[in-house]
Model the fold of this input.
Amino acid sequence: MGLLILFGLFFAAMIAGVPVAFALGIATVAGFIYEGIPLFVAFQRIVSGVSVFSLLAIPFFIFAGDLMMQGGIATRLVRLAASTVGSFKGGLGLVNVVSSMLFGGISGSAVADTSALGSILMPVMKEKGYDADYAVNVTVTSSVAGVVIPPSHNMILFSVAAGGISVSQLFLAGIFPGILMCSCLAVVAYLVAVRRGYGGEPFPGWRVLARSFIVAIPGIFTAVIIVGGVLSGIMTVTESGAFGAIYALIVTAFVYRELSWEGFKAAVLASVRTTSLVMILVATASAFAYLLALYRVPELLAGTLTSITDNPLMILLMLNIILLVLGMVMDMAGLILICTPIFLPVVRDIGMDPVQFGVIMMMNLGLGLTTPPVGACLFVGCVIGGVRIDQAVRTIWPFYVALLVALMLTTYIPWLSLAMPRMFGQ
Done:
């Protein structure tokens, strides 16, 4: 009955339109009252949930990404990608994918990727004769790289929810799967462009390519500072995030000189708003996870899955399906905090490395950001591209197939996600 109250109130609040964080809080308070547990215990769980040092990295990562959106780094990365792959058939589609890989690896946010690159590339693509739905589909699906390629604040959330798994291991583990995703999307973008008869842009010449690379280096170096600082052991993930934000401020304000005072204020407000939402979610999810453990939900789920099949491959397939479905109807950060303590014991029982599972979860829930009815990236992309959601969804399926292929390969080939951590001895 307690479990029914917990999940019943949570989903009822979600259906009523209550934000995920407050839906978790309402369900948790009701669960504590039903079990007769003093509410100060819930308060203790809430406080302990946000009293994790590594969580301090999240506002720095978010602020650095917002500064880069306002300060011209995204524009220079697009120019670099255009100089590199723009001459292929459907070149602007490939430019979109490569730009997402570069910018996603710096901002760590799929929504920021969609917003920044969509605003730059979609008008140009439509002006060059590309269909609006194609522009939206490429932009939206390639933005998923932002939650897989490091640095990603969602991986920090997974680390906290999983009980302190190494963030540096997760960062390294996301590199090959992120590149694989973008490679699959690039192939599909090229094939669709050829079928629709899109042309390429003239090659600008090696001098322009070299100049574009040199100009983009200060922006790319933001990711080097954040990721390199963590992997080298010189800085903690929080310290690297702080240095990354300071560096992004210096580059955008004094090197590129495109960060205005209004842009700075917009970056501060956006990062404060996003950080507040994330921290409230972490706090309430921590108390919610306490009740999940009390009701032995992970053991119940493991028993249910093993009663259907004891084949690890089939169990992984079922977990992927569950995560994909949940990702279609719920926010990514909330799902990471809720699902990790439930599913992690299950994958450990079948011998999967928690780091690999973290990457798989990022890919699954990232795909959910591109699907209706709650796909934030899909909504943002359609608004920027001026396309109805139903129109975009009708033609987006080849890109979904590309993401699913990358997901399945990462699920069943552990080397893809574990090679880099092992290479660096993490």
Observations:
- The two ends are 43 Å apart (CA to CA).
- The chain is about 80% helix and 0% strand.
- The CA atoms of residues 174 and 359 lie 6 Å apart.
- The mean pLDDT is 85.
